[in-house]
Design goal:
Length: 293
């Protein structure tokens, strides 16, 4: 095999950066170019890559974030963008990168975790990760008296709107004290640009950004970005017309006086967690979708 170099912190090297972008597009169909050009690739996103010359052929990235667990802040490393060029697969390159990361960060985190698709479920237990069940929370909401509200649609392709979302989300409070994330606005921006570019709204009189979709009598709340506490009934009354809706939360909700339904979440990915010596990962949670790498 060609001599491979393990590199990181190369986002200012145009050739290597573009090679990384090309591999991500080839493997996952995702596009990092615009995310980088808008300044959302910060020091919190660290690719560890193997390069053959000026070509990135394998990668495992680390996202430095904080988890909020039972009201306490925990340091976390979220693994993502695990990929290998088709010509270099089955050569142990991802294993080499994972072992390097585990050695570099040994004793420096409370939790390391990732979301893996179903065809690699046997890979991560080799490194001390264990699968954790996630749960989807929902509630029924009846709107008897819709409230008119100034709701402004934001454009996930518009530079001015993106900057507004980024600046606003930099001051947000976590979605939940039971289980939430903090300092993940760059991940949110990836979702606003690439996944929910047509589903982002600003409720002016609530001073809140909402990522949501309504499908007939179902509402999917992907994120509520706010600088203050949220009264969910007030928010829902401004998003819906008269009628009864099933509301699905794509995070762990925590709203006073609300009784939620809970069911096992069976999505396209499985949450794997590696715990530090002093911490146990909580049960019955849903990791916030918009801070998943």
């Amino acid at each position: 095999m060609t001599n491979l170099n393990l590199i990181k912190n190369y986002q200012e090297n145009e050739k290597m950066r573009n090679s990384f972008f090309d591999l991500a597009t080839q493997v996952f169909g995702i596009h990092f170019h615009s995310w980088y050009e808008h300044g959302f690739w910060t020091e919190k996103y660290i690719p560890y890559s193997l390069a053959a010359g000026n070509k990135i052929i394998a990668n495992v990235s680390i996202n430095l974030i904080n988890l909020i667990v039972s009201g306490e802040k925990k340091s976390a490393l979220q693994v993502g963008t695990v990929m290998t060029h088709p010509d270099y697969r089955k050569k142990g390159l991802s294993t080499k990168l994972m072992n390097h990361i585990l050695n570099e960060f040994a004793g420096k985190y409370d939790f390391m975790y990732l979301l893996a698709n179903h065809n690699v479920l046997n890979f991560y237990p080799k490194f001390g990760f264990r699968p954790v069940q996630e749960y989807q929370y929902s509630m029924e909401f009846t709107n008897n008296q819709p409230v008119h509200s100034e709701i402004r649609k934001l454009d996930g392709k518009n530079r001015k709107d993106l900057q507004f979302i980024y600046d606003f989300s930099s001051e947000r409070i976590p979605l939940s004290k039971t289980f939430g994330t903090e300092n993940t606005q760059e991940l949110l921006m990836f979702y606003c640009m690439n996944v929910f570019s047509n589903d982002v709204y600003y409720i002016e009189n609530e001073d809140m950004i909402v990522l949501y979709k309504i499908e007939e009598n179902e509402i999917h709340i992907f994120d509520l970005v706010s600088k203050k506490g949220i009264i969910i009934e007030v928010v829902l009354s401004k998003l819906t017309n008269k009628g009864t809706y099933k509301v699905f939360f794509h995070y762990t909700p925590e709203y006073e006086g609300i009784k939620f339904e809970k069911q096992l979440y069976t999505g396209s990915e499985v949450l794997f967690v590696r715990e530090g010596e002093q911490d146990t990962f909580p049960k019955f949670i849903k990791h916030p979708l918009t801070s998943q790498a």
